[in-house]
Every structure is written in structure tokens, then in C-alpha cells.
Amino acid sequence: MKRVLIKNGWLIPMAGAEEVVVDGAVAFDNGRITYVGKSRDFDAAKFKPDTVVDARGKAILPGLVNTHTHLVGAYIKAITEDVRGPAGSGLFKRALPLQVRHVKREDMYWGGMVHAMEMVMTGTTTINETWWHQKELAPVVRDIGLRAVISEMVVETDLSEIRPDVPERRWNRGLFEQGYEAAIELYEEWEGKENGRITTRIAPGGPGYVSDAGLVRCRDLAEKQGVGLHIHFAEIPGETEFMLHRYSKRPVALMRDLGMLGQHVIGIHCVFLDDDDIQIMAETGTKFSHTAFHVPKRGYFPPMPKVYKAGIDVSLGSDWCSNDLWNFMRAAILIPRVLTGDVGAMSGYDALRMATMGGARCLGLEKEIGSLEIGKKADIILVDMTRPSCNPIRLENICTNLVYNANGSDVTHVFVDGRLVVEDREMKTVDRHAMLREAQSRAERIWGEAFKGVS
Ligand SMILES: [Zn+2]
Q1: Best CA proximity match to 381, nearest among 121, 195, 142
Q2: Residues 343, 424: Cα–Cα separation, whole Å
Q3: From the CA of 215, how far away is ligand 1's center (Å)?
Q4: CA of 297 to the centre of ligand 1 (A)
Q5: How remote is the CA of residue 370 from the centroid of ligand 1, in Å?
Q6: Is 127 left (phi over 0), alpha (psi -120 to 50) or beta?
Q7: CA 348: distance to chain centroid?
Q8: Mean pLDDT in each 10-residue stretch from start to end of the chain (455 residues)?
Q9: For the CA atoms of the chain, what is the radius of gyration?
Q10: pTM listed for this prediction
Q11: Ligand 1 mean position, distance from CA 118 (Å)
């Protein structure tokens, strides 16, 4: 399928101002968009499409961009969200011990498949992925057909030992070297692979997980490879206290002083920010992955109105467990409203833009993806609007309607790099049921080990 025409839909290009083209069409040839406009103005006889997709009753949108994922997080789904206790209890008591002790290298691919299928079936076409054993996860994005920036998460301490009330870390040099070598191998094996669909970054886990000397080595490696950085910081309870105890600096100040902020850097979570931190991120052009539907489960939320006001580029990241970005768009709008009482700060269109062009900008991919424009990659989704939830439809408010009322399950077709990955709500590239079965059996083994003797 090289030449494809999608026609008769409500075309929402997300290319600038809020705009919808009624009876809209998109055509692409060999993975690049060649036409965006009215169906009736398109010369189909000249284009000679191999495939025509009728998008009647559907919105045609650019694919969503998820700027922070852990594919392997499927194995902690629903066992961390409701753990009782102070903020972050699910993370410290369940998620990290389980991932460190019980999820083996050979489990990665199958858990990764579950998350990756969820992502693509709900409209995500690009992910920014990190965790350890990334060599096992790169084949997931290859086999599914996602666009992905992958990075080995380099850590220098046993994450299962971290306690929010203990401002210390035991550095483990061997662990660091293992991750550092894996990051080099990942770059050599995967950078630019699959027609450029897979690229790499360097991901020191964060200043709470890697010593300052280790962070500098990661910075230098990224510079040598000419790739960006992907880093958790100001992320969890106790991290700032650890930084102050160890370095007499907050996480953002340390990152700045180590030369680890800038336009090529995406900061993850960035919850525990003060006004100076926000100013530093804005001045350095550091990008922000806002995990809006994830961090509230842990009991906290970043100071988003101040982040937006400072002009920082913000995108949406899912982290793990739930990866339907439509939930993240709604959380990004609603939670600050509750916290501030200000209803006008963000609209449905703003949230949709954050999930598309915002993500592309934060990954430095804004010339290739994030909007439907001639010359860009054909990462395109169709969203069914014939269900009662989106009706009646007022065109002037179509983005607001989609963001408040559509769900990932309304996404019917997904093209990535011009390839049809999801058709009529079903995976085209892998056997969904076989993947789910294998992941289920591995999850049961992992949970059996993790919860032995625990009621
Ligand atoms: Zn994360």
C-alpha cells in the first residue's frame, strides 16, 4: 500500500489555528503526505491511489505523540494504583520492587506488546520510551509498527531500595556500567532503523538514580552520539530532600550546573518544581513531559499554570499502566481547574495540540510529525464520531467535543509512516490475542512470585 487516499472526513490538521475541513481528505505516497484539503478538490484520477479509505463520520487527525513511556509497565497494571499510604506508596511499595526483582529480561517483550498495542489502538503513533533491557523492547516497536525514540534507562542504584524518607542513595558502579554499555549498543543497533522510524536517546534515570559523575558521562555520551537526553527529575517524594542533602542543590539546579538542560533534553514528570526551577527550565528551553493522568494516582501534580505561563514546551507522557492519551488530555485540563479554580486556562484544542504538535516539538520532530501538512510523515488516525458520546456535532467546537467525549476506543484506523497498523479497531501487524495470552501467563508468574505470602 504505497499511495493512499483518506476522504470524506472531518479533517483537523492541527497545523496552526483551530481549523476543521468539512469533507476533508489526506493523500500520501510512500509514507509522505502529498495532499491535505477538500475531498472534492483532489484529483484522484491523477493520483491513482492503491487504497481509498472512506472516513465518513470520522475525524481525521495527526497521530498522538506520547513523550514518556515504560512499555514494560503492563506488569504493574492495577496493582499499584490503590496502594494505601502517603503519596507515592504504590511506586515505592509495589512498582519498583516488582520491576526490579521479578520482571526478567525475557518478560520484557510480552509486557511491552500489551502496552504498545494499547497505545497504538488508542491513537498514539509516536512514543518516547525508556527502561532497562531496551534491546528486548526495541523489537516491540519494530514489530508493532510504532514510531519510537528508545533509550536505555541507566541507573546507578537499586531502585527497589529507595525510600522517600531516607535522603541517601547507595551507588552501584557496576549497575551503571551495565546500563551505559547497553546504551551504546542500543544506539549502534537501532539508531535510524526501520526507515528512520526508530531513533535513540540517552536516558540517565535521573539525578535521584545516578551520581553526578554518572550524569556527566551520560551527557557526554549523548553529545558524542548527537542525540537528546530523556530524564526523570523533580519526580518523586524525597528526591529534592536527597539532592539538598547530597549536593545542597535542588534537582533542576543540579541538572543546569551539570550542563544537562536545553532544547535537546526532555524532563519527565517535573512535579516538585519551585518558581526558580520553572524559570531555569524556561530559560534553557528544556522540554517537559507532563504525565497528567499518571501522577495524580500517586497523590501529586505539577504547578502547571506557572509552567505554561513561563512558556515551557509541554507534551503528554503516560509513564505506565494506562496509556490512552485521551485520558491524559482530560486530566491536563481538569486537575489544574480543581487546584486553581480557573476554568479558562486550557481548552480542548490546547490539550489536543499538546498531544500532537506539543509532543512533536518536545522530541525535536516537529518538521516530520505532529500535524497533517504536505511533506510530513503519514502518521494519521481516524476517530469515529458517530457514537452518541460525540453527538450532536457543532463544527466550531469539534476539538472540544473530541477531547471531552471521545476515547481511545473510538480510534478506528491508525497509519504510521504510511503503513496501516490498526484497521477497524484491530491490530493489523501482530496477533493481539496471542500477545495478550502470553503476557497474561507471564504476569501471573510475576505476581505469584511478588505476592507470595501476601494477602
Ligand atoms: Zn518514568
Answers
A1: 121
A2: 36
A3: 17
A4: 14
A5: 22
A6: beta
A7: 19
A8: 93 94 98 98 96 98 98 92 88 88 95 98 98 97 98 96 92 98 98 97 97 98 98 96 97 98 98 98 98 96 97 97 97 97 92 98 98 98 97 96 97 98 98 98 94 72
A9: 21
A10: 0.97
A11: 17
